[in-house]
Amino acid sequence: MVKVYVHDNKSSIDYRESHNSGTELSLDELAKLGVIYKYCATEAEVDEIAKERQYRNRDVVDIHQGSFKNETDFNEKLAMFYKEHLHEDEEIRYCLEGTGYFDVRDASTPENWVRCRVEPGDLLILPPGIYHRFTLTSGNHIKALRLFKDEPKWQAINRSTQADALPVRKDYVSRINQY
Ligand SMILES: CSCCC(=O)/C(O)=C/O
Ligand SMILES: [Fe+2]
């Protein structure tokens, strides 16, 4: 079951550590950021969500040191996932094995990150336009299903003034401010 809390923002400590500030958030509070959480005991439940939301494609990523040629490539991939970014589409991820952290920006206190620790069975839906990042936990392994509406696509737009000005970002901010 996912655990959601405010990140302690201590950048001197490895980002795969828990960084739990001690302030926990409920799933309702997470939903106010536009992030939907579901527990799916089986992949059949994921199939239902995919069907409802018209997702026709998927792939599996297995992220651990052994999936990369060397440690440098592994670290580069982690650094890429950890760069604050947004997507123009929803991001749906389902944890099959291992654990990971999805950090999303808190709309009301934008300097804060809300950390979601996922484990097997956890499915997260991040809305288009939300700034976020991903990392492994200190367990250094996650196997996850990534759902795509059509062809597999992973286009990250790193945080910048240009990204702030995108319609998808403006739509997200105005939707969140209505809560
Ligand atoms: C556990 S899925 C790998 C990370 C990813 O796909 C993503 O989009 C991060 O933002
Ligand atoms: Fe992403």
From TrEMBL:
Subcellular location: Cytoplasm; Nucleus
Binding site for Ni(2+): 85, 87, 91, 132
Enzyme class: oxidoreductase
Record has Membrane as a keyword: no
Binding site for Fe(2+): 85, 87, 91, 132
Catalysed reaction equations from the record: 1,2-dihydroxy-5-(methylsulfanyl)pent-1-en-3-one + O2 = 3-(methylsulfanyl)propanoate + CO + formate + 2 H(+); 1,2-dihydroxy-5-(methylsulfanyl)pent-1-en-3-one + O2 = 4-methylsulfanyl-2-oxobutanoate + formate + 2 H(+)
Cofactor: binding details: Binds either 1 Fe or Ni cation per monomer. Iron-binding promotes an acireductone dioxygenase reaction producing 2-keto-4-methylthiobutyrate, while nickel-binding promotes an acireductone dioxygenase reaction producing 3-(methylsulfanyl)propanoate.
Cofactor: Fe(2+); Ni(2+)
EC number from the UniProt entry: 1.13.11.54, 1.13.11.53
Matching CDD domains: cupin_ARD
Pathway annotation from the record: Amino-acid biosynthesis; L-methionine biosynthesis via salvage pathway; L-methionine from S-methyl-5-thio-alpha-D-ribose 1-phosphate: step 5/6
Predominant location: cytoplasm
Family: Belongs to the acireductone dioxygenase (ARD) family.
Protein purpose: Catalyzes 2 different reactions between oxygen and the acireductone 1,2-dihydroxy-3-keto-5-methylthiopentene (DHK-MTPene) depending upon the metal bound in the active site. Fe-containing acireductone dioxygenase (Fe-ARD) produces formate and 2-keto-4-methylthiobutyrate (KMTB), the alpha-ketoacid precursor of methionine in the methionine recycle pathway. Ni-containing acireductone dioxygenase (Ni-ARD) produces methylthiopropionate, carbon monoxide and formate, and does not lie on the methionine recycle pathway.
Protein name: Acireductone dioxygenase
Organism: Saccharomyces uvarum
